[in-house]
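Support request from a user on the community tier.

User writes: "When I paste my structure tokens into the form, the page sometimes reloads and wipes my input. The last time it worked, I copied everything first. Here is what I submitted, just in case something in the input itself triggers the reload:"
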């Protein structure tokens, strides 16, 4: 287990994976991280769809025009849904849960990457959310925030470069 400060620095987006499946224990730990995340009013305005079926993962990799191709090689995809009927701030709830799942995966030595679905379109202009719903039989009232692709790292990545942190984005006492 990483020291938290170090975990933040070694976490990078991983888009190359080995063929090794993600074990049940690791999957449970990742899902736990999502379910334990803080949410507005404790309403948990999200749901997760765990996908390991190769044909479905391949189909998900075509849900949008750019930035999802690599998903086809991931052994595990968690689709993060938002529930507008449960919470008006489902985007925030689902984003916090997604972030904690990515951090948990890194802590387990696995690689992961966020793939945006909401607001994205495929090559012929169809909604990436609708494409994702079609692959997984997701009801139309559920929103699709993102895919989280996970697997054993296919390559190592350098930790974050602390010198490139944008401290100029921080304001104190007034803008
Ligand atoms: C809201 C959001 C959307 C993202 N969408 C994608 C995506 O569609 N495809 C992708 O390959 N990476 C995506 N990423 C990962 C970013 O590209 C990555 O976090 C960024 O380049 C910084 O790299 P790092 O995660 O290694 O620090 C997304 C990240 C966030 C937070």
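"...and here is what came back when it finally went through:"
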């Amino acid at each position: 287990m990483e020291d938290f400060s170090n975990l933040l620095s070694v976490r990078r987006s991983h888009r190359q994976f080995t063929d090794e499946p993600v074990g049940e224990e690791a999957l449970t730990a990742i899902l736990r991280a999502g379910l334990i995340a803080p949410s507005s009013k404790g309403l948990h305005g999200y749901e997760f769809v765990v996908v390991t079926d190769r044909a479905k993962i391949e189909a998900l990799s075509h849900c949008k025009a750019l930035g999802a191709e690599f998903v086809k090689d991931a052994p595990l995809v968690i689709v993060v849904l938002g529930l507008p009927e449960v919470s008006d701030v489902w985007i925030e709830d689902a984003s916090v849960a997604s972030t904690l799942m990515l951090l948990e995966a890194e802590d387990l030595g696995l690689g992961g990457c966020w793939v945006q679905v909401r607001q994205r379109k495929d090559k012929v202009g169809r909604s990436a959310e609708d494409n994702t719903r079609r692959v997984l039989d997701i009801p139309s009232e559920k929103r699709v925030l993102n895919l989280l692709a996970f697997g054993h790292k296919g390559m190592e990545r350098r930790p974050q470069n602390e010198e490139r942190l944008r401290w100029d984005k921080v304001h104190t006492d007034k803008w």
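Agent notes: The reload is a front-end session timeout and is unrelated to the input. The longest strand covers residues 143-152. Residues 85 and 141 are 8 Å apart (CA to CA). Escalated to web team.
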